[in-house]
């Protein structure tokens, strides 16, 4: 009994076949014929399906290495952060991929302020003004009001001299209103050393867009 290889979602696996009148016939499943060059080398692999009209697809190096190990778009990520200064990102549901992009910004000399949009309150007041906070009371305790310094200005004042800037990384930003997203998109123009990264939802792969487009400040451009 001979064997050929089938490409499925888990990789390359052998498929049992049997010979019938001098031709190889698969016992089950569709067979993908992998075209290989005469010489060994690196490059995309072209696969042709014997079922479904002979459709072709190209598999790159990233499909074999793993999506969480090598990111070929990190250079574009850094340039977009410097160009737009405020980005809306969309991460896979399983999570973890955004850590590669987080780490690359940290290598560039940025410091981080991690916040969650739930319970943030008014972003303008919390990030750039002295704001009151009422602690939770139990029973007959008096209602107190504490005042805190602006979160962004306080972090900027304590940055080291060699720091490149401050990244305000906000998770669950999809709960914010459009006016709140608009303020976050304009925050780098008010504080030039600040960059804003807002997690605005989920997608099949890690992707990002300028936050001004998501907030409706500029027209949406198709990639």
Question: Can you walk through the features of this model?
Answer:
- The chain is an alpha/beta fold and 223 residues long.
- It has two domains: 63 residues, no CATH class; 142 residues, Rossmann fold.
- The chain contains seven helices and 13 strands.
- The strands form four sheets. It has a five-stranded mixed sheet with strand order 8-11-12-7-13, with helices on both faces.
- The radius of gyration is 26 Å and the shape is globular.
- The N terminus is likely disordered.
Helix content: 25-40%
So what's the CATH class of the largest domain?
Alpha Beta
Q: Any low-confidence stretches, pLDDT <50, length ≥5?
A: 1-35
Terminal Cα span: 49 Å
CATH architectural type of the largest domain: 3-Layer(aba) Sandwich
State the total count of DSSP E strands. 13
Key descriptive features of the protein:
alpha/beta; 7 helices; 223 residues; disordered N terminus; three-stranded antiparallel sheet; 32% strand
